[in-house]
Design goal:
It contains nine helices and nine strands. The chain is of the alpha/beta class and 238 residues long. Helix 4 (109-121) packs across helix 5 (137-150). The radius of gyration is 18 Å and the shape is globular. 37% of the residues are buried. The protein binds adenosine-5'-triphosphate.
């Protein structure tokens, strides 16, 4: 089955009058595991935000199967998390269930069990009462993965999930991503580690404002495509 869950039709997105993403067309197919790679400033995060409906394209269309926001959840860049906010790990993870429960209603036993199970899966069961400001980068990222799980979304977008985490945490969290993929979910992750992409991600979108390649990873991550992406982002072809 090759049903598109997210379809991009000549999508351009601007940031303060400048195009950050230019004329990207293609589809993320249901159940696929796709990496988005590219140099700094290539428009990767901007594209993720547009797919989540947080910014609008200036040209083109983004079609989401089931409508904008349907069954999608996003792991933001860790730098976007306000770690000074006085919230416990448990409450941070519980926020993932707000879509079902609402922000102000008490959690029932089922939601509580879901939160505990997610904390257990990410290896954070013993940290549930800790304030998030006291966590290491890797511990916070584990907690954010648990929050993402609470959404029970069919499509998951992760923006640099392994930035500032150690190898062991990367391996544990990568195993969770494989579990989601095995369950038939669509997973899209912005990544910088190309070896990790080659090992784990069957599909890759190489960005440099525009799409340089969007296909099977071995064909996308050629030296030519990576060279081209670097030069486009450096402004050599303007
Ligand atoms: N919130 C923002 N503040 C400043 N510039 C932005 C912002 N959002 C987008 N831009 C600009 O849009 C372009 C694309 O940025 P974006 O963050 O999407 O790239 P990226 O590929 O995710 O980069 P990185 O790998 O460095 O995170 C850049 O030129 C950037 O300066």
């Amino acid at each position: 089955m090759t049903e598109a869950v997210i379809e991009l039709d000549q999508v351009s997105i601007s940031w303060r009058e400048r195009l950050a993403v230019r004329d990207i067309s293609g589809a993320f197919v249901r159940g696929t595991l796709t990496a988005i790679v590219g140099p700094n400033g290539a428009g990767k995060s901007t594209l993720v935000k547009a797919i989540m409906g947080l910014v609008s394209p200036v040209r083109g269309r983004i079609r989401i199967a089931g409508g904008q926001g349907a069954h999608m959840a996003c792991l933001p860049q860790i730098v976007e998390i306000d770690r000074s906010f006085p919230v416990t790990v448990y409450d941070l993870v519980a926020m993932g269930a707000w879509g079902r429960v609402g922000a102000w209603r008490a959690f029932d036993r089922l939601e509580h069990d879901r939160i505990e199970a997610a904390l257990e899966l990410v290896g954070m069961a013993d940290f549930s009462r800790r304030i998030i400001g006291t966590l290491s980068g890797g511990q916070l990222q584990r907690a954010l993965f648990a929050r993402l799980m609470l959404h029970e979304a069919d499509t998951l977008l992760l923006d640099e999930p392994f930035a500032a985490v150690d190898r062991a945490t990367t391996d544990d969290l990568m195993a969770l991503i494989h579990d989601w993929h095995d369950e038939g979910r669509t997973v899209i992750a912005v990544l910088h580690d190309l070896d990790l992409v080659r090992t784990h991600f069957p599909q890759t979108l190489v960005m440099a404002g525009q799409a340089v390649a969007w296909c099977e990873t071995a064909q996308a991550l050629t030296p030519e495509n990576l060279h081209l992406a670097r030069h486009i982002c450096a402004g050599d072809y303007l």
